[in-house]
Fold this protein.
Amino acid sequence: MAVDHYLSVEELLHDLQDVVRIDSDSVSVLDPDAFRNGRIDRLVYSSVFGEDAVQDASRWLVRAASADLDAWTASIHELYMAAGRNEYANVTTPAINLRGMTYDLARTVFQAAHNTGTKQVIFELARSEMGYTEQRPAEYATDILAAAIKESWTGPVFIQGDHYQANAKRYQNDTAAEIGAVRDLISEAVRAGYGNIDIDSSTLVDLSFPTIREQQRLNYVHTAELTEAVRLAEFPGSTVSVGGEIGEVGKSNSTVEELTAFVDGYIEELARRGSDLGRDLVGMSKVSVQTGTSHGGIMLEDGSIKEVSVDFATLQDLSRAAKDAYEIGGAVQHGASTLPEEAFNKFAEANAVEVHLATAFQNMIYDSEHFPDDLRDEIYAHLAEAHAGERKPEQTDSQFMYTTRKQGFGPFKQQFWNLPEDTKSAILGELRPRFELIFRELNVAGNGHLVDTHITRVDTPIPAPKSLR
């Protein structure tokens, strides 16, 4: 069902005149119930599909209002550093990539968090996902904060840039331009309210060198360079959580020796950069590793998903090495959402600090019996034509669609958003129990006191757009 959106800033302000008060660069929500029960839906829809001035006004109002209603963007850095000091253990933060139906899915995550006493959950989007989902940081952050408002969430909201990655081919063609593009994206994300950035230069690891230190050199040099970019972009008083990565997901498993070579080199390079600036630069809080998974899972010819064997012993060793040697939060696991339910508690047992989850939720949307057949057929027909060149000769139709359908979320964003409410409710009702199960298995359920203890609120300046001045 289509949501009415604001056609002008004047219409927006008139509709909100008895609900919020705008004072220069701040907002006071005068009637929270009225704001949640209608206005927020129009604002978030306008922030995505409205004209430029309406988009800017809507995004600013959502962000400023969320802070006034005590749902504030935050960094998870201090919590992870507490894990590095062994002040808590065996609790693994779920980091969830929302590729489509973002506002509705985020609402469902907040509902599941409420139901399980969970406060330790990250909403994230990768650099590559931004393209095919057509979501820039400001739009994504607005969707998440609007969902927090709608669901009466209070406390920190963790939003993360996932895999802010240097593309190896573009890097070879123009190193400065590729690294510069990642720097620019970091600044854009931090301004939008992202408190957490995962830097991924592991694509530049070169195994042709004889020593592990040499193999990891480009990785740690550029991770330090981009950490510097984060520190220069972050707001005064805040410390954005930064993650590094030592091995591409889907490739060979990481080793403690690789982690040590990468982090040692990173620390030295970051210190050098800090010395040049005349200041200390805070380093990373976690390291992403590879222990047997792949992004999205692999569909076999019979339509089933290939079983994955995660090396939890290696994951535990890597997490222990990160904590013991460097007092950072620990190891991060990617590509885990398609694992069987019984596997998730093993991440907490292995003391992984974070696990990234995406494709299983996408699959549950597309494969739901409640998903409209005509919309699915329309999306698949578009993908078959628009992405025909990506199809591998040996792929079945099902395998091709499985690997490609994530790219349907952007072109059909408005159709997803305008699904009938009863259809969306039925689909999301299937997802909520899955989120709740994952929160319990990762041991974040019932452990909200960890966030209360270690996360300090930092309010950042949010200048109002010209259209509201």
User: Anything to note?
Assistant: The longest strand covers residues 155-165. DSSP finds 20 helices and eleven strands in the chain. The mean pLDDT is 93. The CA atoms of residues 79 and 454 lie 5 Å apart.
